[in-house]
Input
Amino acid sequence: MRKLRTAAAAAAAFTGLLLLAPTSASAASPSASPSASASGTAKPVVNSVGTSFLTATTLASGQDADVPVSTGDYLYWAFPAAEGQTATVQVKVTLPDAADRHGAQTWTVELFDGLRRRQSCTAGPQNGTAEQSAATLELSCTLRQIRSWAEPWSGDPLPGTYYVRLSTTDIPQTDLGLASTVHVHVATKGGADDAQPEGGSLKAPLVPPVNAGATAAAEAAAPSPSASATYAAAPAEEETHWYSDLFSGWNTRWWWTVAGGVLAALAGVLGYTLTRHPRGHRHHPHHPAPAPVPHQAPPGQPRQDSWQ
Output
């Protein structure tokens, strides 16, 4: 009897171990998930840069860019900004070796909105000059707070895409093309809760197409099943006036031809009348006046001159 109890207790213990094994495995799995999620949310460092507005490299908020560049080129990055946010762009330029340079270098960072309008900076050194012995140069630009809407005549920052342009404004000619390294960091703070009520809203963000000619939606190319049931809108009727029917119809060309002929004839007659010389009103110098004929006396009478 004691052996049976011992065997039953061993079987129960073995069954308990089998039930606890999946539980421990499942309890151990959540401990590895936070690290995986943390690694998944980490934003990768961008290693590319654009040379124009259309080829600008897009950066997210809090994302960095480390790019080897050629001194003297125009460098472009783009980042999105929503209403209520205040964006700050920080740039660090690692200059070429001092032995390879021939003078000081001046770098400038600028911000443009989606309409290519240059935005002013509220804080930070936007321009910087590095002497020949300097190794690095740091620049920054803090954008004004994004507004929900603005007047058409104003240049206030609106929600949409913003562009960062980094360039050299003053550099010796012999230093163009030297290898440099640029580090860019975009940080934003605030949100829609911080936006001041303006009494209006922007219909669509200012996000222009970056890849021109390739932004058409795929579904626009293929007709929808209900396309056969749709009809094009009728064209609007042109506005007519009381004089619209005077020179309209199939004989419009003949009306204008006859009217042009009559006007040309009248112009010719008027021009001839104004420029011709009437006869009999003026003697020409090459036609002298005829001499007077003396009076002839009848036969048998003495001749009498006209002066007697």
